[in-house]
Amino acid sequence: MIENSLRKVYVVGYARTPIAIPTILKALERSQIEKNVVDCLVFGQSFSGGCGPLPLQKILVATATFTPTFITAKTFTGINIDAKTHLVSNLCCSGLDSITVGYEFIKGGKDVCVVGSMESMSQSPFFLKNLRTAKYNLGNNILYDTNLSDGYDYITNSKELKKDNMFELFCKKFKIPRVDLDEYVINSFKRTANAYSDNLIQQEIFPLIIQKKKNKLELEKTIIDSDEIYKKCSIDNICNLSSDSIVTNYNIAPFADGACAIILMSEKKINELELNPLAEIITYDNASVYPSDFPLSISHSITKCLKKINKSFVDYYEINESSALDVIFNMNNLNLDLSNVNLNGGSLSLGHPSAVSGSRIFISLITVLKNFDMKLGCASINNYLGSSTSIVLENV
């Protein structure tokens, strides 16, 4: 316990793209890490159906056996095959929870941990219920979408929100009007566009080249070097959507694919390798409320973190935009100013790849702290069933 309380945990590098393996490898290269120093690989994933057994172990093997063309470091060969793998599944909180697990591993004696998350919602499978026990001799059966049945069951087959969903009921309970939600969505898109113009988000992403066969002789190359959703915003569509509901498809974050990788390291290992860390993880905490009050859990976990560090506020906050409601309510509840929250936009304008959003807001937090010379920041995310996770970082 003495060792646990004294060991500090730092962030030394990160990267994000839509695909896990190149993201991990790029984060390692940026951190100047060789494979034999990695102790563990901890990733979040909400929807692993159809990925086969032990998807993270497969990724570990893949990173240990090849070096892609974008890796420039001559000594780089991938992750240590002996590294511990640990998959976290807690819906939206998975990505941030993976960081807290890695944090605890290093507090407990590990030195280097690759944490993050991966999600390919566009590839999540459909399934048939009761196929093992029922007899389907004649008649139709329903295919269930794992994105909905195992995740977001408040969405209907027609991609609309179910009537009297918990988002809608919460807005009515706390008298949050639709105009406030729509204004926040528009602001999120504008902030993301500005962040790209100022070359901020590009610091997180690296260009990924995907090759597919065009024909027998040619390969077709696709370069992914930016988020796509923010480019498709139509302010008129958001404001003029005809709906009696307060919560609409526009003020709920759209699904997406993505992956993030973050390198955590002990102070001892940083000194040994003579590296310059980006930030120190100061503390984290969790909170849980009844599903009907789910946005409130963010306020609770942030407050717990602030109490641990004896502070009433920090310089900056990243609050996941799984819906505009989550941010607006907690800003009001914690008396936060919009100028200190989600400066580069969020999931409403970047997309919400379920498990990945927690890791993404953690990376965004570091980006903002570094570029705007802020000291302390907090990243917080919840899931709609009432649990949340918050982490406090210090810029170093």
UniProtKB/TrEMBL annotation:
Organism: Plasmodium malariae
GO biological processes: fatty acid beta-oxidation
Protein name (database record): Acetyl-CoA acetyltransferase, putative
Pfam families: Thiolase_C, Thiolase_N
Annotated Gene3D superfamilies: 3.40.47.10
Domain Thiolase N-terminal residues, every copy: 24-268
Entry GO MF terms: acetyl-CoA C-acetyltransferase activity; metal ion binding
Family per similarity comment: Belongs to the thiolase-like superfamily. Thiolase family.
Domain Thiolase C-terminal, first and last residues per copy: 276-394
GO cellular component terms listed in the entry, alphabetical order: mitochondrion
InterPro entries given in the database record: Thiolase, Thiolase-like, Thiolase_C, Thiolase_CS, Thiolase_N
Keywords: Acyltransferase, Metal-binding, Potassium, Transferase
Domain of life: Eukaryota
